[in-house]
Amino acid sequence: MQPFPDFGFKLVVLNEILEKGGGSFLGELDKLKSDPLISRKLAGEESYGETIPEMEIFFRNIELNHADLDLVSELWFDGGNDIYHLIRPFWNGESDDFDTLSVDGFEKLKNLRTVLHISMISDAEIKRFKMAGIEIK
Fold first, then answer.
1. Of 3, 21, 99, 108, whose Cβ has the fewest other Cβ atoms within 10 Å?
2. Predicted pLDDT at 114
3. Quick one: pLDDT at residue 1?
4. Which residue stretches of the chain have pLDDT < 50?
5. What are the distances in angstroms from CA 108 to CA 79, 90, 123?
6. Of 83, 102, 69, which Cα lies nearest the Cα of 15?
7. Residue 132 lies in a domain
8. DSSP H or E stretch at residue 11
9. Is residue 44 in some structural domain?
10. Which domain holds residue 100?
11. Hey, CA dihedral for 90, 64, 132, 124, is it positive or negative?
12. Beta-ladder partners of 115
């Protein structure tokens, strides 16, 4: 199931799932992070500041299931989300590389109650949450 066509939005959702300590993909992610080459890139020992293609591909290809989606009760739109540093470890949060352009598919997040936004999303997209009765902070 690919409920979120916008990669930036998918990353926000994935970040929340990881924050909850769950996700059907967690074992695969741990295995990928333990790969010696990926581990060196995450630590900045290789390709400092660059995107780790293997991590980006991994997150793009994750197929979320209903149990994954049910873990999401709040979303944070902020350049400091941990997931961005798994893709580009030394990203400074200043570019628009991970911005959410569309929240299409958010209706599949049945337990979503709160959206906190600091950056990385337009007011028009935030309004979509508000119109659906989701608390905005």
1. 21
2. 98
3. 57
4. none
5. 24, 32, 21
6. 83
7. yes
8. helix 7-19
9. yes
10. 7-136
11. positive
12. 75, 136
